[in-house]
Amino acid sequence: MKCHYCDRDAAYAAEKDGIKVGLCERHFRTQVEALADSEELAAIREQIDIDRTE
């Protein structure tokens, strides 16, 4: 499987509803970094109180 964004071999693949998408190492890291900085993830963290120390 090839990366969704370039012609490199995919290092990771995700599947949902029968659709499979691959990402090379570089593009996987880019997507994870973008998610880590997203407002959506911040909202989820706030909802589940992910930073608690209990």
Task: Write up this protein.
It comes from Halobellus rubicundus. This is DUF6757 family protein. InterPro entries: DUF6757. The protein is of the alpha+beta class and 54 residues long. The protein is elongated. The chain is 41% helix and 19% strand. Strands 1-2 form a two-stranded antiparallel ribbon.
Based on DSSP secondary structure assignment, what is the total number of beta strands? Answer: 2
Helix fraction, binned, reads 40-55%
Overall 3D form: elongated
Helix/strand/pairing class, anyone? Answer: alpha+beta
Distance between the termini: 42 Å
How many discrete domains?
1
Elements, N to C (H/E): EEHH
Mean pLDDT across all residues, rounded? Answer: 89
Strand order in the largest sheet: 1-2
Radius of gyration: 15 Å
Major sheet, described briefly? 2 strands, antiparallel
Strand content: 15-25%
Low-confidence stretches: none
Oligomeric state of the chains? Answer: single chain
| Alpha plus pi helix count | 2
Topology:
Elements: E1 12-16, E2 19-23, H1 25-36, H2 39-48
Which features would summarize this protein structure in a list?
two-stranded antiparallel sheet, 2 helices, single chain, alpha+beta
Summarize, please.
By secondary structure, this protein is an alpha+beta fold. Helices cover 41% and strands 19% of the residues.
